[in-house]
Amino acid sequence: MIEGTSNINEFSFQEIPVETVELDENILVDHDLSHNIVEKQSLVDEEINVLKPPEIIFNNPQSWPTINDKLRCILVQHGPDRGKMEHKPFKNHWFYKKLPNGESVERSWMMYSQPNDAIFCFCCLLFGKQFTALSDPKRGFSCWKKMERLKEHEDSQDHIKHFLEWKMLENKVMKGGGIDDSLQKEIKSEQEKWRHVLKIILDVLLYCANNNLALRGNSEEIGNPAAGHFLNLISLISKSDLVLRQHIESHKKGSVSYFSHHIQDEFIYLLSKKVREKIINQIKSAKYFTIMFDCTPDVSKREQMSQVIRYVHISNGKVCIEESFLGFILSHEKTGEGLASEILTQLSDDDLNIQNCRGQAYDNGANMAGKYKGVQAKIMEKNSLATFIPCTAHSLNLAGVNAASSNVQIKNFFGKIQQLFNFFSGSPSRWEELKSLKLTLKPFSDTRWSKLISNELSC
């Protein structure tokens, strides 16, 4: 489920940066994924690179496969990628040359590769057959003390020829032509198809997440009733969507489909990341906030600490008090000091300043509410304005439990009610007899003593 679902209705598909998967390696591959997603990265990479050759990084010529017409058109459309040059020996002014009249002209052919820490001639990489340092994708030019060789290269006949070939192809590609018009139309058609399919997949994922529907079933075969909500919804939409139906019909085992559970996990993570970023930005805009954390073991017997932030959100002149769930934190601590350290670390990771915290809300456990060693005390040491507010409902419930337990008659009274419930609920025939008399019994609750009154009245 997407984290922060209380705000998911505010999140629309248009906010997702869906671009051409063929031309940008950073659209769907996020190298800063959480540990469970990173393990699946290699599997996801195989699926999301559709038209783009595998493992290509535009500013790293070493990753380029053998250049054919199709790849050449894609590279020309993208253009030379100069990457980032911070804290490098490469100087930015080397991208320009001075003419005899003193005018500076950009060397548009030159690209800087950060992974190689070298420069390359873009047009010679695309069209050159004889390798020099600037046109060798495995080497590049990095002799920073001999930059005069740049002028020698750009004045060479081979470079001038390849530069003209590059500009002619670029002009054709940008105008819809190319080396082969049919090839260009094929590329454009594939782009539009994958954008269309991707939009439907993300819409289905958003729908399932918004309605808390499990994605997968017992089968990954589209059309199988046991395939789960995701694939069944895809199958349903394909009945009225020709592009999606053709995509499903042409799908073969081992080919790219975007339907596997690996890509579902990747998309869910990216969607949740967007939702979480939006919530955190709202919290930062509000500035002041209250933190609410609570620990509970999950089915795998691991302690999970839920993170909820309370803040004031103002939108279109309307003031709303929001309580947004940001996720679970795997907790390894039991002491107040250890839990406080985990909370502070999480707030720091979310770029939320603890000095802007104006409230704390936990249960009444000693490790959370302890006056001297509890979490609230440790947070107060960091920020004295983070006032602790104990859970009043929890406090009232504890008072009720202790008050009732201290009176033998009350304890026996509710014990008899529980015995009656056990007697009737233990047999379907006895329960039917009770229903025929239009009477209802409810089970005893250790933690919700306010419900005991309604239990008694319903008898």
TrEMBL record:
Pfam families recorded for this chain? DUF4371
Coiled-coil region(s): none
Q: Where is the TTF-type domain?
A: 86-185
From what superkingdom does this record's organism come? Eukaryota
Q: What is this protein called?
A: TTF-type domain-containing protein
Tell me which species this is from. Answer: Macrosiphum euphorbiae (potato aphid)
